[in-house]
Request: fold
Amino acid sequence: MDDAGDIIRFGEGERLFVVRRARRLLRQGRATADDLVRAEEQPDPDVTVIIPARNEELTVGLVVRECLNFVARVIVVEGGSTDRTAQIAREAGATVVRDLGLGKGAALRLGVEHVTTPICVFVDADGSHDPIDIAMLVAPIKAGVAPHVTGSRLLGGSDELHGGGDEFLRLAGSAFITFMFNWRFGSSLSDSQNGFRAIRTDLFRSLRLRSRHTTIEMEMIAATLAAGLRIAEVPTHERRRAAGYSKISLSKPSIWLAYGWHLVAGLCRSQKAAGSARP
Reply:
């Protein structure tokens, strides 16, 4: 990441990508020049962003500042970092909550305990998620379309899931898990494992999630579908992490066991009829 210019870029061609698509919208009459120069909307007071972070001092400040352009509050759950993650996050404007470094799932559950807004959005601290998409994630919830919305890398593209053996395993594993959930619950998701998602705060609390690690996304999906509730998807582009290293090591048998266990547990959940579930 360069001096960051206070923006994390998803590629050298970002400007060309955005300009050409904006021109297409103008030609199609789906946008006007005023749309492109209009002042940014005010941060949404109904949304809190939760960012789990451990040893992410190089990116967490920038991610927090970007999120605060779109939401009223950001909570960083700091999991036993040995660097300046907590200090930088606090200086950037986040509320910092310390946990014991028990894992991403435990961090998200702890973060939600401190939320007072009706909607939560989960964002990674490494710069791979673009906060500009937060409004798009939240829109289906506010419209009453679905109480749980995930960003789809299959619809929006990913710089992380292609190019090597590790990436192949991640993509294949994600596709298999998504297929199994679609088969079990009759859903039509394209990406069940993306951590970039929005959910009604009361729904998250009612799901009684237990996962301590990155399997929290799998458990969240299974619990929502088993409750007979709809999950919506919106296209979001995943960038390569801007700095640091992934906390998930596919070389550890414990990771495979954890995912296998939560997949089986999710598939074995009894499903409520959609009409009997709370909307």
In short: The chain has one domain: 42-276. The beta strands are 44-53, 71-78, 95-98, 119-122, 148-152, 197-200, 231-235. The chain is about 40% helix and 15% strand. The two ends are 42 Å apart (CA to CA).
